[in-house]
Batch of 4 targets.
Target 1
Amino acid sequence: MSDAWLIVGLGNPGPQYERTRHNVGQLVVDELANRRGEGFRSHKANARVAEGLLRPGGPKLVLAKPNTFMNVSGGPVAGLVQFYGIPPQRVVIVHDELDIPFDAVRLKIGGGHGGHNGVRDVAKALGTPDFPRVRVGIGRPPGRQDPADWVLQQFPASAREELALAVSDAADAVERLVDEGLLAAQQVHHAPRP
């Protein structure tokens, strides 16, 4: 069994989805790859993968973006788990969360999927919901807008600065989770901003 960590950014494939709220998990994984100077390459598990170390001498990170649509993310995640020999407790799923305010980051292990079909499919494919999650808040849609439409909309230009901060904060949360554990990461990232 490997001591590596698999960090998966959930989202939808294709350029039309790249900057949408539903793809914020993939933006976080892109940020983690950029910090390590690594590019993504195709993997037989139907995903794009970049590998690097958390820090020199630290644990290996396998950064992944499934090539499938969000609702069927489980297959590629299970394929990568099998290929790299990584247990579910070291599979970090990074995803958007409607019930968290925009730009807030929350971490947890296990629990329900909260109506998130990508998380639901990963739990089904892994045979357990007990994996760490880094949830990036996108907030609820205004008025009566359908949440399904909201998550597939691009972030507005006016939110670019906040989005960049949220993505950086979530990438920090992933690194802290791997390095120091869930509780330490929660204590930093669940605290109110100064």
Target 2
Amino acid sequence: MLSKRQNLMATIKGGNPDRFVKQYEFMHFIMETPGGRFPEPGQTIKNDWGITFKWPEGQLGGFPVHDDEHKVLKDITEWRKYVKAPEIPASDEAWAAAAAHAQRVDRNEEFITVFVAPGVFEMCHHLMSMEDALMALYEEPEAMHELIAYLTEHELAYAQALIDHLHPDCIFHHDDWGSQKSSFISPAMFDEFYLPAYKKIYGFYKDNGVELIVHHSDSYAANLVPYMIEMGVDIWQGVMTTNNTPELIQNYGGQISFMGDIDSGVVDFPEWTPEIAAREVERACRNCGKLFFIPCLTQGGNWSSFPGVYDAVSEAIDKMTKEMF
């Protein structure tokens, strides 16, 4: 029997896996890394960038507050006045808990994985709102290029700290690039503004010993897959059914792999049942096949919004392994 790590590599390299990769099983998350604050349900917080996040009770997640009082970046042409990158902790003490956790992981079995969020696109609209960010790409492209370069340099500095202290095998990087039906920006605009940034970031990780780049975007982004390949993404996690995952596998399998096709919105809701989970898992596995595909909830982490859903999906994947391998 292959290890989790070996089975993952056989799946994404077109080899001979002996079972379906079961969601996030190959990633061992190191979540004690310093820097970055996210709200819990019911909380309102301000992070180190000055961005205020609110997670209302009863909602599935939090989002920045963008009224006039709380918006960080009020004028893109004066972004240097408003945007100040936080200092990245450098002391061994700050990284001690994460480093100790990483040392306990069997790298032969699992990939030591660091969770990086938000990405460059999300940072732009977290600072100024989605509407302002999209308008700025059209109205003030020079200033947006400058801001993106600034955010990229900060990401690279954080990447260096991760590598120095943890030596990760895998990066799980969040940056949502679309809605369920379309990307937020055109491929041409993505190419101009965000592809160069990600080529630098993901290239830096790959040049410094990181084996796997897993990019999360639970959205439509089929039109951006060629750019994902160019920037060095190994696995696109969060691929929704609206992308036509089997077609993506047929067109791009061997260059990139696809993790998802089990839409969280269809499976992970208050009235969920094991039967719904089993139905969606079977559809995904039979349609997408054994190679270049990892059946997984589209949600960006090894959990579910409602108790029991993640485990039910994993159990259904085990059942499909028995039927298809």
Target 3
Amino acid sequence: MEDKITNSLKKIPKVEQGQKVVLGIDGLSRSGKTTLVRNIEQHIQEKNIFTCVLHIDDYIVERERRYNTGNEEWYEYYNLQWDVEWLKENLFKKLKESNELQLLTYDNSSDSQKLQTVRIPNTCLIIIEGVFLQREEWRNHFDFMIFLDCVRDERFNRESGETQTNIEKFEKRYWKAENHYLETVSPIEQSDLVIQN
């Protein structure tokens, strides 16, 4: 992984004084995105460059808006898990023009969204991590995109034993949505860098 991070950093646009660079870490569930982000963040901070890390899963909507909506489960996960247009207007479009974002952040314990202020320095590497980042509404707001490619069996084995027992949910919800993303968006081909993990 160390070599992968070093090689990745060489390809990411340099953060100049007064500049914000937006880096996307895309990949399907359990492909290793969060681990890669932590490692990149550590390397960048050693160079005295500010980083701001945003996890797209922090901005999902309440359960009633993404479950039992009458749509197929894969559709709910891909299209309703996030308010795609709201995030486009309030997160992605404002990343470089504002130093302060007001974002609706999901709280799992109360199943509610709460407004949170996110401050971004003038000179900063903004790292956004999550699934489906290259959907049409968001893709043009990134300066550089890394896709972590990992086969489904390997990713599934990284789930907890309890989670693995509910394979029907994966088949109906997650895997169908992932297939839709791969087939309609072609994230591997669209990425600036693909890392096999």
Target 4
Amino acid sequence: MFETDRTPKRVGVVGLGLIGGSFAKAYADAGIEVFAADIDERAMNAAMAEETVAGPLDEATIPTCELLILAVYPQAIIEWVRSHEQFISPSTLVIDCGSVKRSVCPVCFSIAERRGFTFIGGHPMAGLQYSGYRHARADLYAGQPMVLVPPEIYDPDIILWAEEALSPAAFGSFSITTAAKHDQIIAYTSQLAHVVSSAFIKSPTAQKHRGFSAGSYKDLTRVAELNADMWTELFMDNADNLTEEIGVVITELGRYRDALSRGDEAELHALLEQGSIAKRKADGRYSDAREGGVR
């Protein structure tokens, strides 16, 4: 069994973008010493000037950290673990924050098992349409969900350890899943939304919208201004799941188009009503009256 209190006294953060920077600020605000690594010297300098980061995360400080948070692109996560595995203490918990898990977790699980430290896949379900340390916030994760992906065979106490270690970030809930299930669901909840937003904004009408748009336009285009380097890597790592989800949307859009082309008002109404019901079901707000429930 692990100790009751596993809140770290020293944390290492790899990557000081929006995600890593927000973790760094949350831990620093909690009075926890933070060391960090980032290829962007400006982010490092800003974090150190603000006293969010105490110093560089390197071969001298890595072994002293009880928690390591890896908030970089998936392939960079693997490369960092491989190149620094010899410095990670067996008593350290390593959590990655990559948006895909099948490409990251198996490799890192294997390294962790060989080296004796603990690795858990993680994905904070929070973010902004903006990136970079300048947008990082200590409260970014407050009340938000966190997904954890433990090894296939694991001691349940490592989940309690992870939850305690992440407590300064103030997540509202934790979900435990597999790498495969994570990637399947995230293809829909995150990646598909970015693809649709990117496609939607390419209409020539977008350049003429000023004065004619409100909440719907803003909601659909919020994530269109994305980091193409990062999302290309994420989409390619999860291409099978994302392709399937895109196919569903294409099929459904075809049904709306066909109903409009035929002037089929009844079919269009049915499609719209089906979508409304699907939304309420997805949010847990729908019960079919024919089954004794209420709407």
